C-alpha cells in the first residue's frame, strides 16, 4: 500500500488484506474461466437487479480456508483482524430477501463448481442508510464506495453500448432500429470464491457511462450549457441509485432504463463469450443458461431475440426458440402491486424495437396454441405484462417454496400452466451455511465440528448426526454456552455501535426483515403492548423476561409502515423507561438493518418471528437463518415456514394463525376485523391505550388512522390472528421455563435444517433448469 507498517491505519490494513485475498484467489479464478472456455463448458448467467453479498473479506478468507492464518498473521503484526474487517462497508446493492438469495446462490454455484456469472448493476449509492429521528425513519444516502472497492477489478476493456429510444423502420427485408442514444456499460468484476477455493466465478456489475459523443457540442456552442449536458447527466443517473422499494413498483422511466441497461449489457456479454469459441448460434443453449431473478430482467428474452435477429441474421422463429431454451424465470411474489407492467407508450418511446418483438411474441403464442391461448396476453390495457413475457420466453418457471409454487400455478399463471404443463416447478429457497453458520456463528460452528467432525460446511445434511446428542445434557449445556456467547457478542456490538444495552439473560425474541404490512410487525408490537399491560396488572407473576428486537427498513414512500416504525419506537420509549416492567420487557430497534446486523442478531436469537399473513410471503430466507442457528420459530403456515415445520417437526415449532385458504375466506366476511376485536379483550385494551395516546402523549391522535384501519379494514388480518398469536406466545414462555427442553428443541431444529442449504437448491437448478453439470 506504499505505507510503512508502523504508520498504517486500519484502512490501509484492510486494503492490503483485500488485495492479498484477491491475489490468493486469482489462480483459481483464471483457471475456472480457462476451463470453462477451453472445454466448452455450459455456464449459468444469473441476472438480478439486486445483490446483497454482505462484507466480502472474512467470507473470502473462510472460503479460501485462510481465516485462521490471516488472523494469526495480523496478531504477529500487532493488528486485530476483527477490527480490520469491521471497517468494511456492507454493499447494500439490494433491498432484502431477493438480493440476498442471489448472493447465496452465487456462493453455492462457486462451491459446487458450477460455471457461472452473476450480472447486476453497480449502484453508486446502495439502499439508503436508515436513522431514527423522534422515532421516525429518516433516509440518508449510502456511500459504500468512499474508500474504493478494493476486492473488485474494473475492466475498462470490457464495455458494451446499450441503445435507447429512436425509431424503428421496416425497410426492404429487415427491421432497422435507429436509436436516439447509446450508453456505455462498463464491467466491474468481483471474484466469487467457492468453499475450499478450488472454483471461482465472477460477479460482474455494470456501471453506466455516457458515450463520448453525448455532450451535444452544437447546443454547447450555442450557449445552452445545461441542455447540452442533459444526456450525459441522464447516463450518470442510470447506475447512481438502487430503487428503494422491494415490492411495489413505481413504473418509472429510470427504472425501466436500468432494467434494459442490465439485460442488454449482460446478454451482449453472454453472446460475446459464446462467440469467442463457437460459431453456430444455434448451439447457444448447449453453452449458456440465463436465469432471470424475478421479472426485473425480463427484457432478456426480447433483447436476446433482437441481437440474434438484427445483428446476427438469425430468423425470428429460430431466435425465439433459442431464447426459450436458454432462459429460466424465478417468480418471487404474488403481490399484485409487485407484478411489473410497463405502459406501452413508455416502452415505445424508450425501446421501440423491443415492443415490436413483444408484439410478435404475442402473435406467435396465439398462432402456436390457437384458442387454448385466448387468455394469454403479453400486452393488455395499454400495458406490457412482464410476468407473462417472462413465462412465455422461458423453458422453466419456478416458485420459491412449495406453497408459493402451488399458488403460482393455481392463481397467477393458470392459463400459462395449461398451455405448457410442467413448465412451472418448485425450487424452495436456501441459504449458504458458510456465511450463515461458519462466519456468523463461530462458537456453534466449532461445537458442530467437535461433535460430528468437519465436512458439514458442504454437506449440510450431516447436521442430522447431531440429533442423538439432543438427549445428552452435556451437549445441551455446551450448546447453551454457544447461545450465551452469541448474546454477549451481540451485547458488545449493540453497545459499541448503537449505545444500546442488552439484558443477555432474557429470552431474545427477534423480528428482522423489511417492513411490510403483510409481514405484520404490527401484530408483534401490539402483542408487546399487551404483554406490558398484563405485567403491570400482575407484577407478582413469574414472567419470562423478554427482549423484543426489531430491525428493518421501510420503502421511503410507504407511509403505512413508516407509522408502524414510529409506533414501535414510541412504545419502546415508554416501556423501556417503566421501572415496573424494565426487568421483564424491553424493546430494541437498532437502525439500518443489513447483512452485517443479521450476522450479529441471528446467532443470538432464541425466538424467530415469521408471522406473515398466510399466502403472502413467497418463501422467506430469514426463517431459515434463524432455525439453522438454533432459534425456535413462532410462525404462520406461510412460504417456507411450511417446509421448515415439516422438517424440524411440529412439536419443535410454534404454529399459529389462519391458513392461506382461511385468509381468503375471512376477507370475504364483512366486518371481520371488528368482530375479531370485539371478541378479544386483550386486543381492545391495546387499541384503547394506543388510541388514548399512551405512547404519544404529546400528540394523542398520532395513531388514530392506524387504529381506525384495524377496526374497519385490516386486510392483513392482524386482529383475526391476535388471540392465536397470544396463545402461541404463552406456549413459548412455558417451553422456555424448562431450559433443557428448550435446548433440546433448538438442537433438533439445527440438526434438521440441512435441506435448507443453498447447495441443495442450486443443485436442483443445475439439474432441472440449467442442465449444467459440475465442472469438478
Ligand atoms: C435474509 C435477509 C433478508 C430476508 O429476510 P426475510 O425474513 O426472509 O424477509 C432481508 N435482509 C437481509 C439483510 C437479510 O440478511
TrEMBL record:
Catalytic activity line of the entry: [(1->4)-alpha-D-glucosyl](n) + phosphate = [(1->4)-alpha-D-glucosyl](n-1) + alpha-D-glucose 1-phosphate
Biological role: Phosphorylase is an important allosteric enzyme in carbohydrate metabolism. Enzymes from different sources differ in their regulatory mechanisms and in their natural substrates. However, all known phosphorylases share catalytic and structural properties.
Protein name per UniProt: Alpha-1,4 glucan phosphorylase
Extent of the signal sequence: none
PROSITE patterns xref list: PHOSPHORYLASE
A Pfam family matched in the record: Phosphorylase
Keyword Transferase: yes
Alphabetical list of InterPro entries matching this protein: Glycg_phsphrylas (IPR011833), Glyco_trans_35 (IPR000811), Pyridoxal_P_attach_site (IPR035090)
Gene3D superfamilies assigned: Glycogen Phosphorylase B (3.40.50.2000)
Species: Nesterenkonia aethiopica
Keywords: Carbohydrate metabolism, Glycosyltransferase, Pyridoxal phosphate, Transferase
EC numbers for this chain: 2.4.1.1
Class in the EC hierarchy, top level: transferase
Cofactor: pyridoxal 5'-phosphate
Family that this chain belongs to: Belongs to the glycogen phosphorylase family.
Amino acid at each position: 500500500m506504499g505505507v510503512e507498517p508502523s504508520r498504517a491505519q486500519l484502512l490501509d490494513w484492510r486494503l492490503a488484506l483485500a488485495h492479498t485475498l484477491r491475489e490468493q484467489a486469482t489462480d483459481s479464478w483464471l483457471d475456472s474461466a480457462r476451463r470453462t472456455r477451453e472445454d466448452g463448458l455450459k455456464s449459468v448467467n444469473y441476472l438480478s437487479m439486486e445483490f446483497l453479498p454482505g462484507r466480502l473479506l472474512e467470507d473470502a478468507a473462510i472460503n479460501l480456508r485462510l481465516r485462521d492464518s490471516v488472523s494469526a498473521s495480523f496478531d504477529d503484526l500487532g493488528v486485530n483482524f476483527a477490527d480490520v474487517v469491521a471497517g468494511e462497508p456492507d454493499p447494500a446493492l439490494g433491498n432484502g430477501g431477493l438480493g440476498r438469495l442471489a448472493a447465496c446462490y452465487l456462493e453455492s454455484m462457486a462451491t459446487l463448481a458450477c460455471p457461472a456469472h452473476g450480472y447486476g448493476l453497480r449502484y453508486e449509492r446502495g439502499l439508503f442508510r436508515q436513522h431514527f429521528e423522534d422515532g421516525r425513519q429518516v433516509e440518508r444516502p449510502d456511500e459504500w464506495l468512499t474508500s474504493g472497492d478494493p476486492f473488485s477489478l474494473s475492466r475498462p476493456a470490457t464495455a458494451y453500448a446499450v441503445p435507447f429510444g429512436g425509431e424503428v423502420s421496416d425497410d426492404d427485408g429487415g427491421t432497422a432500429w435507429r436509436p436516439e442514444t447509446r450508453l456505455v456499460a462498463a464491467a466491474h468484476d468481483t471474484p466469487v470464491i467457492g468453499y475450499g477455493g478450488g472454483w471461482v466465478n465472477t460477479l460482474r456489475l455494470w456501471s453506466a457511462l455516457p458515450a463520448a459523443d453525448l455532450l451535444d457540442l452544437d447546443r454547447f456552442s450555442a450557449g445552452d450549457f445545461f441542455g447540452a449536458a442533459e444526456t450525459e447527466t441522464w447516463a450518470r443517473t442510470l447506475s447512481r441509485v438502487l430503487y428503494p422499494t422491494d415490492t411495489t413498483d413505481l413504473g418509472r422511466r429510470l427504472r425501466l432504463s436500468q432494467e434494459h441497461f442490465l439485460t442488454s449489457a449482460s446478454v451482449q456479454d453472454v453472446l460475446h463469450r459464446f462467440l469467442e469459441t463457437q460459431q453456430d448460434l444455434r448451439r447457444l443453449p448447449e453453452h449458456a443458461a440465463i436465469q432471470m431473478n424475478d421479472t426485473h430482467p425480463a427484457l432478456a428474452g426480447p433483447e436476446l431475440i433482437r441481437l440474434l435477429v438484427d445483428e446476427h441474421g438469425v430468423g425470428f422463429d429460430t431466435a425465439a426458440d433459442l431464447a426459450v431454451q436458454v432462459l429460466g424465470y424465478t417468480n418471487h411474489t404474488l403481490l399484485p402491486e409487485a407484478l411489473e407492467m410497463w405502459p406501452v407508450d413508455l416502452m415505445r418511446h424508450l425501446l421501440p424495437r423491443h415492443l415490436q418483438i413483444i408484439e410478435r411474441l404475442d402473435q406467435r403464442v396465439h398462432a402456436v396454441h390457437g384458442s387454448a391461448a385466448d387468455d394469454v396476453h403479453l400486452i393488455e390495457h395499454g400495458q406490457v405484462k412482464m410476468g407473462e413475457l417472462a413465462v412465455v420466453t422461458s423453458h422453466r418457471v419456478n416458485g420459491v417454496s412449495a406453497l408459493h409454487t402451488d399458488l403460482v400455478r393455481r392463481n397467477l399463471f393458470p392459463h400459462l400452466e395449461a398451455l405448457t404443463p410442467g413448465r412451472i416447478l418448485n425450487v424452495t429457497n436456501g441459504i449458504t451455511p458458510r456465511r450463515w453458520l461458519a462466519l456468523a456463528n463461530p462458537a456453534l460452528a466449532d461445537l458442530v465440528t467437535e461433535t460430528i467432525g468437519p465436512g458439514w460446511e458442504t454437506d449440510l445434511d450431516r447436521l442430522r448426526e447431531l440429533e442423538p446428542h439432543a438427549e445428552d445434557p452435556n451437549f445441551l449445556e455446551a450448546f447453551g454456552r454457544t447461545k450465551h456467547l452469541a448474546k454477549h457478542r451481540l451485547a458488545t456490538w449493540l453497545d459499541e455501535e448503537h449505545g444500546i444495552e442488552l439484558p443477555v439473560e432474557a429470552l431474545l425474541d427477534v423480528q428482522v426483515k423489511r417492513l411490510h404490512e403483510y409481514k405484520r410487525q404490527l401484530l408483534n408490537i401490539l402483542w408487546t403492548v399487551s404483554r406490558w399491560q398484563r405485567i403491570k396488572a400482575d407484577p407478582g407473576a413469574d414472567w419470562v423476561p423478554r427482549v423484543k428486537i426489531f430491525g428493518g427498513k421501510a420503502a421511503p414512500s410507504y407511509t403505512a409502515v413508516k407509522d408502524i416504525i414510529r409506533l414501535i419506537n414510541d412504545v419502546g420509549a415508554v416501556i423501556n423507561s417503566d421501572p415496573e416492567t424494565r426487568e421483564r420487557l424491553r424493546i430494541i430497534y437498532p437502525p439500518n438493518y443489513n447483512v452485517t446486523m443479521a450476522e450479529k442478531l441471528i446467532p443470538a436469537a432464541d425466538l424467530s418471528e415469521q408471522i406473515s399473513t398466510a399466502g403472502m410471503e413467497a418463501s422467506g430466507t430469514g426463517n431459515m437463518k434463524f432455525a439453522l442457528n438454533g432459534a425456535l420459530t413462532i410462525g404462520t403456515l406461510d412460504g417456507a415456514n411450511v417446509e421448515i415445520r415439516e422438517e424440524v417437526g411440529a412439536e419443535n415449532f410454534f404454529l399459529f394463525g389462519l391458513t392461506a385458504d382461511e385468509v381468503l375466506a375471512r376477507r370475504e366476511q364483512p366486518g371481520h376485523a371488528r368482530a375479531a376485536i370485539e371478541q378479544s379483550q386483550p386486543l381492545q385494551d391495546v387499541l384503547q391505550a394506543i388510541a388514548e395516546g399512551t405512547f404519544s402523549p404529546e400528540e394523542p391522535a398520532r395513531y388514530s388512522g392506524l387504529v381506525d384501519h384495524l377496526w374497519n379494514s385490516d386486510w392483513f388480518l392482524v386482529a383475526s390472528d391476535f388471540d392465536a398469536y397470544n396463545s402461541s406466545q404463552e406456549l413459548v414462555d412455558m417451553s422456555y421455563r424448562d431450559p433443557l427442553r428448550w435446548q433440546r428443541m433448538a438442537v433438533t431444529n439445527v440438526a434438521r435444517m440441512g435441506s435448507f442449504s443453498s447447495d441443495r437448491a442450486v443443485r436442483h437448478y443445475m439439474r432441472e433448469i440449467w442442465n449444467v453439470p459440475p465442472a469438478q
